[in-house]
Fold:
Amino acid sequence: MSSQPKLHTLFRRDEIEATVKRLAAEIRGDYYGKYPLLIGVLKGSFMFMADLIRLLDFPLEVEFIRLSSYGRGRQTSGRIKVVQGPRSEVKGREVLVIEDIVDTGLTTSFLLDYLRKKKPASLKLCALTDKPSRRRIPVTIDYLGFTVPDKFLVGYGLDWDERFRNLPDIHVLEGDIHF
Ligand code: IMP
Structure:
């Protein structure tokens, strides 16, 4: 990187809060009384997951999964591995995957295939952001926060090289950044 990256705010915290509330209402309508298993994809989904579940006023279980994708930079290499799987039994559960962003779709479709093999009673996807212009594999998003342009986003859990996850708003990373 030869110059300081610049941040341009795309979604302020109040817009994110309103969107998370809307998603929570949709999820509540479908999962109330079903004791769902919510599986957050680390690390990017941790902040979204924390805000979302605080708005869900019924019994549910929280798990996280950590994936690694070989290759560096912005592009997912497509060779993905589960580094840390959910400890709870997935079989027979109502499973809802919580993602920060669906970009090419490679990570999410790998994960959904992985979980589907474990025979959940149902399997759905909630994603805070969707970048459809970069999709390489079709992915059905059941609960979607924001559709976003083909820009690199940081903040609210999203990072660039492990930086910026702690920012409360979502920003476009601009400037001379190399992936
Ligand atoms: P996919 O496999 O290309 O859909 O990529 C999914 C993963 O790439 C996400 O879970 C993020 O970790 C990362 N990613 C994709 N786009 C962005 C972005 O704009 N900002 C931060 N991370 C991103």
Residues 44, 76, 100-108, 152-153, 158 surround inosinic acid (CB under 6 Å). Residues 6-174 form a domain with the Rossmann fold fold (CATH 3.40.50.2020). The longest strand covers residues 61-69.
